[in-house]
Design a protein that fits this description.
binds NADPH dihydro-nicotinamide-adenine-dinucleotide phosphate; 9 helices; 5-stranded mixed β-sheet; elongated; about 250 residues; Rossmann fold; Dihydrodipicolinate Reductase, domain 2; binds ligand LZUJQKHR; alpha/beta
Length: about 250
Amino acid sequence: MTHSSSPRIGIAGITGRLGSLCAQEAGPLLAGGLSRHADPARNIVTDASTLAQSCDVIIDVSHASLVPHHARAFAEAGCAWVLGTTGLDKTAQAAVNDASKTIAVLQAANFSPALTMLLALARELGAALPDYDAEIAETHHRQKVDAPSGTALAIGRAVAAGRNVPFDQVARMDQNGKRPDGAIGFASLRGGQVVGEHDLHFYAADEDITLSHRALDRRVFARGALKAAHWLAHHRDAGLYGMEDALRKHTD
Ligand SMILES: NC(=O)C1=CN([C@@H]2O[C@H](COP(=O)(O)OP(=O)(O)OC[C@H]3O[C@@H](n4cnc5c(N)ncnc54)[C@H](OP(=O)(O)O)[C@@H]3O)[C@@H](O)[C@H]2O)C=CC1
Ligand SMILES: O=C(O)C1=N[C@H](C(=O)O)C[C@H](O)C1
């Protein structure tokens, strides 16, 4: 458990599109960063344990392949972990869950406040419209490596939770073949510099409804990540938290 009003913040993936914005938002609280290329002048190191030892909390917006290693390094150092990286496989997610038994971990596929609210609405509509076909469409910039986006998957999980059904049994990533009753479908587009668009559709024979979110500026994620880091670094016990926790309680 950490107690600090001025936490020392590290950024894993500090050279990336989001990591560089997080570093700007952190300002004087930035303690250093993690990259495959060291830069001593900016306190950028290549070793996760070294960074963790000099930080109270690390914002991780790097690459899914690094997650199991980060989980061990941050847990050993007792450093809180804000994890925004998406595209995790089951092994990586298990490593996150394990680390959260030792340190405070806030995992969020999307740090936007409005998108976090959309997840609650998705759950509510999923429960209220159990017979409607749920389809999730997402569009991102051409550099994105994972599909569907982590946010699309989180929206799908929220709908499944509202319906009280196991997500893995109802999720349909493939566009081929008929959609079975109760399916939650996914579709992805990639192109240009689209920051992040998500639409959740519920279709019936005689009506449909859509929840839409557009991220217009990547800074919305960076600001959210900093909010999460402050919330987590202040006084959180070991455990696995979500963005909704940081937003609900950010005034306490
Ligand atoms: N939770 C949220 O709100 C958001 C989450 N994201 C997620 O954050 C992650 C990063 O996104 P983004 O900043 O756009 O990505 P970038 O590719 O721009 O940045 C990722 C950084 O990770 C480092 N890296 C380490 N290992 C690898 C590897 N094997 N392959 C590629 N990069 C590697 C690279 O730095 P170096 O070369 O210096 O090692 C790179 O700059 C993604 O998973 C994305 O989905 C993105 C936006 C919002
Ligand atoms: O890679 C991105 O850019 C984004 N990734 C996150 C995701 O996979 O959901 C969040 C946001 O949509 C931008």
